[in-house]
């Protein structure tokens, strides 16, 4: 499928954005401000209506401007699985969801365990000309968990971190050595926390609901024992560890304790984990779009995740965008692929927490822009003078309905189809060039 991308409005010279509320945790700003852009970068943050000579004015009164959203956890599928997603379609979906930068996981075919794959991804992203793409290199060759990849070469080629996401690194010694190498390269290790022996053939959360539905189940312990192991290894090595897609109350307790003891760790969760629970599997009649890994958990876990988003235990909200074609999803629950196409719904679902006063908008932008950029070590996540003018424009009052059929992603696998949401990205700027969204 050919992706018809939105055309940026060509803007040269100086631009001043007027009338908006600027929310930028990187500068501790949440106030009406004007923004001066010159040659694709932020020139200055101005007082409202401050005079600027020779600049084209763009009036965004009543809207929110934030640093471009950064998704720390995306699956783009290319190379190898272009029938599920391409870099062009995935970055189009990112822009449609308000993201100006995404980090893509290495579980492609071939796996991104060599500089040639990293360079290919960067080349295809440049050709697409939409959201910036930051490749994550594989921890192990082929993500088989047997031998370390050429991590230094991957970093040199543009990998901003390392992960075998989709597969856990079961060998603790290999994980230790990966953390040590990553420390030398000043890159984070992103851990998929799952003990395969405990998870076995489970397809949903272990609870009375799984018993009632007669489905093989995954205990919370399968995540938590690996969270505990990797925290210990990160503390031992002094390395940067980022824990992906956490879903349980127990995992959060381990993270909270580790942070109090000085471990260099960060973690993320995803909108489906703080929006849905295992009940969705039952109420949807075994809809495969409710099948994710880790699985949707219980209500106690969901409420614990929301509390951890507020108190700082969780550092980032990630989409874990996992596009699948219909052949992988329109089958029985037991054999369906795991994952949700999440880039286009992530912001809207997360804004529900703001409307419900569970977290502030300032905190949400910290979770979806400032912190992910810091964790990855990329030049994004703030609109400080000198930073790229990558901007997300949000209408907090825009009412819209999720329509999987109209997703920019090639894949339509979402349990949120038809949901009515309030709040949406209506425009982005990429290096100062305006892209209006539908």
**Largest sheet properties:** 6 strands, mixed
> What percent of the residues sit in helical stretches (DSSP H or I)?
25-40%
Percent range for β-strand residues: 15-25%
* Spatial strand order of the main sheet: 3-2-7-18-19-20
CATH topology of the largest domain: TIM Barrel
In quaternary terms, these chains amount to single chain
CATH architecture of the largest domain: Alpha-Beta Barrel
How many separate domains make up the residues? Answer: 2
Overall description:
With 438 residues, the protein is an alpha/beta fold. The longest helix is centred in the middle third of the chain and has 17 residues, at 221-237. The protein folds into two domains: 14-65 and 388-436, Urease, subunit C, domain 1, CATH 2.30.40; 68-376, TIM Barrel (Alpha-Beta Barrel). It has 14 helices and 20 strands. The model has no long low-confidence stretch (mean pLDDT 96). Helix 1 (87-96) links the parallel strand 8 (69-74) and strand 9 (99-104). The chain has helices at residues 87-96, 115-128, 151-157, 172-185, 196-199, 208-213, 221-237, 249-260, 271-275, 279-283, 299-311, 326-329, 346-355, 361-376, and strands at 14-18, 21-24, 29-32, 34-38, 41-46, 55-59, 64-67, 69-74, 99-104, 132-137, 161-162, 189-191, 204-205, 217-218, 241-243, 265-269, 316-317, 391-401, 420-430, 433-436. It has a six-stranded mixed β-sheet, with helices on one face. Helix 1 crosses helix 2, helix 2 packs parallel to helix 3 (151-157) and helix 7 runs parallel beside helix 8 (249-260).
